[in-house]
Description:
Structural class: alpha+beta
Helix content: 25-40%
Number of strands: 5
Order of helices and strands: EEEHEEHH
Amino acid sequence: MVFCRGGEDAFCSFVTDGAHELLCDIPVDRGGKDAGFRPSTLIEGALAACVNITLRHYAQTRGIKLSDVVVRVSMNNQDPKKILMEQQVQLIGDLTEKEREDLLQVAERCPVNKILSGEFAFHMEESRSDIKLEPAPKKIFA
Length: 142
């Protein structure tokens, strides 16, 4: 669960899970200050980070000599009915072709990839009372 609250600037928003914090904003040409991630960029970032972490963890637990992974994710939403998450993965290390193939298959099974591949439904309701920020954020909402 995450919580988000507006900041002092027009569109700046602070996001926390109680232990970690990040800042979102919109570009200057849209009235923001470009002081943080765009919200849609966080979706790309979540997928890129998940692929990166999944591959490094998989390689480490299997003794694969993967020295680094670079992941690029771009959200292509030209067709609003089907959003394409374009991913490029650079595997760095002394790897066999079999290891490279295995790693790319593992990348497709990262948890965020599974979530984004599923069907979504949304429920929204207005809270007319204070939303309890639990666990309590460290500092940005103080």
